[in-house]
Design a protein that fits this description.
It is a single chain. The longest helix has 22 residues. By secondary structure, the protein is of the alpha/beta class. The protein contains 9 helices and 6 strands. The chain is globular and about 60 Å long. A 6-stranded parallel beta sheet has the order 3-4-2-1-5-6, sandwiched between helices.
Length: 239
């Protein structure tokens, strides 16, 4: 292999999380409609999921749509995303790919923010893949870190009135993201170097990786390079 010495990926993150940023800028740079960037981004995520599983990742969590996106972006743009998500959830080829890889979908977030057709389609896919156990894909949709914490604190309020001990596990159990293990590695694309409220409770010891490429251009070799970086990190967890 000329020009680059291939490194050995000795340690693979069990739980990989992804912020697939840059779909709109990719569309603009190619003089295409926003729809094209989001459509390509969804297809790229399906590929990315299979690559991650192939490298040995057990759990993949993706930020599909934030609470801030729903509140602050134009209705037209959000409707484009909703339509694409419904189409993807009902796509027999995507289900076939999930089944062949024994990969299940879990939908997490403030689902009351979603139109009924979107919620129904995604939850239907979740049910159809619930028996697949080799790989878990968590879709965070209608998700925001502060919204998740606020949700937990509201539920914990009544618990606290009982004067029972308030522990980390109690907080975790009351979050929308209660089922998520702590995140080992977070990848964000498009050159943005912030987490924007992404999984604040589960990411305190996550390793971070910021890629320059827009999400639709992120390839398998880019993932491999990111995993090589993770493999070289030394995680001390405060020791």
């Amino acid at each position: 292999m000329k020009g680059r010495t291939k490194k050995v990926i000795e340690t693979v993150p069990s739980h990989l999380a992804l912020i697939p940023d840059g779909n709109r800028r990719w569309s603009s740079s190619h003089k295409l409609q926003i729809f094209n960037g989001y459509q390509k981004g969804i297809k790229k995520f399906i590929d990315f999921s299979i690559w991650a599983k192939g490298f040995g990742v057990k759990t993949l969590t993706v930020w599909a749509l934030s609470t801030e996106n729903i509140k602050n972006r134009s209705k037209t743009e959000i409707e484009v995303l909703y339509r694409l998500y419904v189409n993807a959830a009902n796509d027999p080829e995507i289900f076939k790919t999930l089944k062949s890889n024994n990969a299940r979908i879990k939908v997490i977030g403030n689902l009351q923010m979603l139109p009924k057709r979107v919620k129904t389609a995604l939850q239907s896919l979740e049910r159809k893949t619930s028996s697949f156990k080799d790989f878990t894909i968590n879709l965070l949709i209608g998700y925001g870190g502060r919204d998740d914490m606020t949700h937990a604190f509201k539920k914990i309020y009544n618990y606290a009135l009982t004067r029972r001990p308030l522990t980390e596990s109690v907080i975790t159990q009351n979050m929308r993201t209660a089922s998520l293990p702590d995140v080992d590695f977070i990848i964000r694309t498009s050159g943005e170097m912030r987490l924007s409220g992404f999984l604040p409770w589960q990411s305190d010891y996550s390793e971070l990786y910021f890629a320059e490429k827009y999400w639709p251009d992120f390839g398998k070799k880019d993932l491999e390079e990111a995993l090589e970086v993770f493999s070289q990190r030394r995680r001390r967890f405060g020791k």
